[in-house]
Structure formats: structure tokens, C-alpha cells
Amino acid sequence: MFYKDTYISRLNNNCIYLSLCQAVLLIYVYFIDMGFAENLKQELTYIGMLKKELAAASGVNKRAIDTYVRTNSSMPPADTAVKIAKALGVTVEYLVTGEEPSINKEINRLTRSILNLNKRDQMLISLLVKAMNGTH
User: Fold this and answer.
1) pLDDT tens digits, the chain, 136 residues: what are they?
2) How many folded domains does the chain comprise?
3) Which of 11, 96, 121, 123 could form a disulfide with 117 if both were Cys (CB 3.0 to 4.6 A apart)?
4) Is residue 125 part of a domain?
5) What does the alpha-carbon distance between residue 93 and residue 36 come to, in Å, rounded to a whole number?
6) CATH number of the domain bearing residue 76
7) Domain presence at residue 16
8) Are 61 and 55 within 8 A, CB to CB?
9) DSSP letter at 72?
10) Within a domain: 113
11) Alpha-carbon torsion, ordered 50, 55, 56, 58, to 10 deg
12) What is residue 73's DSSP assignment?
């Protein structure tokens, strides 16, 4: 009888432990994925880019972009996240955490604004900055 009670107690404790571990893992994965999806949506809205434009700029197909924008979807592989981040002019860290790295936020905003300009205007800004620094 003692053996049976001990076994059931251990079994119940293991089930509770596994359930708690699984719950923590599911919550962690859910919030990480939700963060990426939410940050991706917010960034697309912020810069006024459509998902099909992001797909063209990043080389990631639109169906995959649609999947990453859905809140309950999975996070993309690292190489895909890098492509998406580059196309948006942000870091992968920003897409995952919603926080910019320790780089000056104003510099990041200016960089994004410049990246949204056409190539001619980007070149003019580059020439202006070089002239101001004395490095033609």
C-alpha cells in the first residue's frame, strides 16, 4: 500500500511539475512571438509600408510575411528575421523585444527617414554630410 501511495504521489507531483514547465514554456513562446508580430505590425504602420512591399524589399515571400504578422504565429528563422529587419531599417533585437539597442534613438529615426527617401535624395544627404565633415 505504501509503495502504491508513494508512486501515485510521485506521479501527481511529476504531472504538476511537467504541467507547470509546459505552461511556462508556452507563455514564454507566446509572448516572444506576440512581441515579434506586434513589433513588425507597428513598424510597418510607422513607416507606411505594405506587407507586399516588405516582401519585395526583403526577399521573403508575402505568405511568410503574413504568417509572421499574425499574433499566434511562430517567429521566423534568424536569417529571415535579419532580412525583414534590414528591409525595415531596424534591428532584429527591436523586432523581437520592441526596444532599440543602446544606439541613440534619434540617430535610428534619422536613419529610417533617410532610408525611406529615393536614391537621389539619399545620395544628396550623403554628400551634404561628407561636405560638413570635410570628407568628400
Assistant:
1) 444 444 344 444 444 444 555 555 555 545 544 588 888 998 999 889 999 999 999 999 999 999 998 866 678 888 999 999 999 988 888 888 887 665 556 777 788 888 888 999 888 888 888 888 887 6
2) 1
3) 121
4) no
5) 9
6) 1.10.260.40
7) no
8) yes
9) T
10) no
11) 120
12) S
Amino acid at 38: E
CB-based burial label for 38 (10 Å; 0-12, 13-18, 19+): middle
Angle between helices 62-69 and 2-47 (to 10 degrees): 120
**Do residues 43 and 93 touch, judged by C-beta distance below 8 A?**
no
In a domain, 63, yes or no: yes
Radius of gyration for the chain, computed over Cα atoms and rounded to the nearest angstrom: 23
Question: In terms of Cα–Cα distance, which of 37, 51, 36 is closest to 96?
Answer: 36
Sign of the Cα torsion 39, 42, 46, 48 reads positive
> d(Cα 6, Cα 82) in Å, to the nearest integer?
52
Residue 63 in contact with residue 104, Cβ under 8 Å? no
| 62-69 and 78-88 helices, crossing angle to 10° | 90
Query: Measured between alpha carbons, how far is residue 32 from residues 5, 78, 118 in Å?
Result: 40, 14, 34
Per the structure, the complete domain to which residue 68 belongs is given by: 31-102
Quote the pTM value. Answer: 0.53
